[in-house]
Every structure is written in C-alpha cells, then in structure tokens.
Design brief:
Length: 275
C-alpha cells in the first residue's frame, strides 16, 4: 500500500516561495518582474530537454512521469507489522505444516512476500530461495538507479545550460558597449539564466534524485528483512526466536511499538478467553 509523501512537494513549493519572498522584499513587485526573462527560460528548459533526449533512450524518458510519482509516494510498510506477519506464518507452519501457508496467500498484499511464501510452499531449497529473492532485489536496484539517473543528469545539465545562457547574454552585452545605459540591465538578464539553472538543479532535480535513492535504500532494507523472515519460516524456527532475530533490524522506537502491540494483543486475547 502506498501513501502520499507530502514532504517532497511541500519542500519544492516552500523553496520557490522563499525565493519569491526574498525577491519581492528586496525589489518590490515591480522589481520581481525583472527576474522573468523569456529568452533565458527557453535557453535553460529547451537546452535541458535537448540534452536529456541525447543522453537517454526514448523508453527511459517516457518513464519520467512514473518516476516523479515514485518520488511523491512511498510504500507504507510498517516493520513491526511485518515481523508480526512472519511470526504468524511461523506459528502456522509449525502447527499445520509448510503447505498450510498457501492459505495465507490471499491475505498477503506485498508481491515480494507472496513470492517468497510460494517458493517455500513449493519446497525450494533455502539457498535457492535466497538467491532468487536477492536477484530480484538487485534487479529492482538497477531499475531504480536508471530512473534516478534521469534526475541526476538533469541536475548536472541545468546549471550548465544556465551558464551557456549567461555567456550568450554577455556576448550580446559586449556588443552594446557603446551605450553604457544598457550595461546594467543586460548584465542582469545575462545572469538570470544561471539563476534558473541553479534553482532547478538544487531545488528540484538533485533533491528528488536523493529522495529516490533514500527510498531505494529503505526498500532494500525491508526486503532483506523479508528474506530473513521467509528463510526462518521455511527452516521451522521457533516463532519467538524468529521474532527476536527479525527485531534486531528494528530501531528502538520500532521495538517499543512492537512490544506495545504484543501487550495489547495479549490483553485482548485474555479478555476474549475470560468472556
């Protein structure tokens, strides 16, 4: 299940708002209009698009929308709930046998967990299961890297095109040296393209690339826990021992949460028995 990651759009919006406020505070509304240069926008955006078309295949560029969506959403995978799931699977496997886990598949939404359980039910060797699932992690990392590279390259190209626009503006300015009154405005316009490129790189492209990298690391970490859980269930480990083993991956905050949930579950169970 995915939920919106509001921090990314909030951060980008806040960054632009702060820049706009700084401009208006310094030069007023009238001064703010001097920061808009259509030619500079065309140079930076057009040059950036051209560079991306040269660098990447069309298939990769078509994924831009999907990659942006990944940056704006995150998987809601709670580690304590994940550990409780494997404890439940281990308890059922020890009580009813490995084949009984097939009945649990309908309640499992995560395809990676479902695939691991299916491999266990099929009687695949633990080493083979681990190899298959780790190969899937490697493939996922490769896909994520290719997607993230789009933003990393855009973050590299944007300031460069801003500098190209500045150089074009400086050449035009030097051609007008006979009119000193035009030097100031011409210099300002020449510098705007550098501003556009730098802002796009450091407020949009590079931060989003870093966010995607962070999400990949979190997903890999979660999948490693899943692999350990799957292997533990297949090996017939004691559910409590498996829980302790998987809990080693948790932060102190998550460990406290897991203990609280277990206490609540035990309390509910006692209440039901008494009733």
């Amino acid at each position: 299940m995915k939920k919106r990651d509001l921090l990314t759009p909030i951060g980008i919006t806040l960054g632009f708002i702060m820049i706009i406020i700084a401009i208006i505070t310094s030069g007023g509304i009238a001064g703010a209009t001097s920061f808009i240069d259509i030619a500079g926008i065309f140079i930076v955006i057009g040059g950036l698009i051209a560079s991306m078309l040269i660098t990447f295949k069309l298939e990769q560029i078509k994924l831009t929308g999907k990659i942006i969506k990944e940056a704006l959403y995150q998987k809601d995978m709670q580690l304590p709930e994940l550990i409780k799931l494997f404890v439940r699977l281990a308890e059922r496997a020890r009580r009813e046998g490995i084949l009984a886990l097939e009945n649990e598949l309908e309640d499992i939404e995560d395809p990676f967990i479902k695939k691991g359980v299916l491999l266990v039910v099929d009687g695949i060797e633990p080493e083979v299961i681990k190899d298959i699932m780790e190969a899937e992690i490697t493939a996922m990392e490769d896909r994520h890297y290719k997607g993230r590279t789009l933003f990393e390259k855009a973050g590299e190209y944007a300031p460069s095109w801003g500098m190209i626009g500045t150089l074009i503006g400086l050449v035009l300015m030097l051609n007008q040296l006979s009119d000193p009154a035009t030097l100031g405005p011409s210099m300002a316009v020449a510098l705007l393209t550098t501003l556009y490129g730098t802002v796009l790189a450091n407020l949009v492209f590079l931060p989003m690339a870093s966010k995607l990298e962070s999400k990949t690391e979190e997903e890999v970490f979660t999948k490693q826990i899943i692999i350990e859980g799957i292997i533990g269930v297949q090996a017939g480990q004691n559910p409590r021992i498996l829980e302790e083993k998987l809990s080693a991956f948790l932060s102190n905050e998550h460990k406290v949460k897991l203990q609280e949930e277990e206490t609540n579950d035990a309390f509910v169970g006692e209440s039901v028995n008494e009733a």
